[in-house]
Batch of 2 targets.
Target 1
Amino acid sequence: MPPEPQDRAADPPEGTADASGSPAANPYAHSYPHGRFTVVEVSGELDMATVGSLAEHLRAAAERPVPDVLVDLRGVAFFDGSGLRALCRAESGARERGGRLRIVCDRPRIHRLLGAAGLLGRFPPLADLPPASDPERGSQRGPKHGSGT
């Protein structure tokens, strides 16, 4: 007997992982592969009300085997201590798995926030995304994706 329409599994709640295990894109963050990196691109205002949307992407990226995560903050208009906490947690998780988490940021305000928090040494900002083929040099910008890949 075929299943009735009401027997169909409910769609996952918005903001949960897709079939590949990647978090769904949301207004504040989306993730995509860039060579050996996982880029978490952040936009808008990042504060206590929105940091959960970023944290979901950071956790997923940092939990991969030997993660190499780039957090692109160039589209961020506002960033507070809750965002710093999320970065520190994800960076610790990546390091525990033998990987790393770095930020890409050209905004002086965020540089000052990192400096005031004593985190510039932990997160020395890259000015741009490294090319996918050479993780230590270059300045290629990754593609904008509308999906949560």
Target 2
Amino acid sequence: MKGQLRGRVTVGMMQGVWAGLHHALAALRAEHPGVVVQLRQAAVADIRQALPEGTVDLAVVAFDRQ
């Protein structure tokens, strides 16, 4: 269908970072049903490496602000 987003998005996320993510994913699904979201759980270092490699499209992580 013209103008509708379709495809796959891979989200890299560290363990324990779930708060509110399901709300964002549900909203994305409702707005763009042709987009498939794949979650990839890994350590922060692995996710940071996966971004420039292109094996994840975006990341959800937490950093300690010291």
